[in-house]
Design a protein that fits this description.
By secondary structure, the chain is α+β, with helices and mostly antiparallel strands. It starts with a helix and ends in a 5-residue tail after the last helix. The longest helix has 18 residues. It is built from 4 helices and 4 strands. A hairpin with a 2-residue loop joins strand 3 and strand 4. Strands 1-2-3-4 form a 4-stranded mixed sheet. Helices cover about 30% and strands about 30% of the residues.
């Protein structure tokens, strides 16, 4: 389940809303975040969300695009990822095993 996976990834506690557009291809996952109380730089946050997108693409075959609408320190940001561009250099979940272990999600 896509939403279930989202809630196991970093920054899940900041998710306000999720939407899956699946009427016709391309299928899109839209996630709204509100992140105000985290001591992280914007570029580090973007790197983490990019990694989240790669993990989603590696585990959910029918997600073609991911859009993160992020309210970060009272500033609106839109981060968009397409499977064809984001996932092409990542072949399997093994690419993310270290991240998932660090997050305490798998052994």
């Amino acid at each position: 389940n896509t939403v279930g996976l989202l809630h196991k990834l970093p920054f899940s506690k900041y998710i306000e809303k999720t939407q899956i557009k699946e009427g016709s291809k391309p299928y899109e996952l839209i996630v709204n975040y509100r992140i105000d109380d985290v001591n992280i730089k914007k570029d580090e946050l973007e790197k983490e969300l990019n990694l989240n997108a790669k993990i989603i693409f590696s585990l959910i075959d029918n997600v073609d695009n991911i859009s993160y609408k992020v309210k970060f320190n009272n500033e609106d940001n839109l981060l968009s990822y397409e499977r064809i561009n984001t996932y092409k250099n990542s072949n399997s979940l093994d690419d993310f095993k270290e991240v998932l272990i660090d997050a305490g999600k798998i052994n």
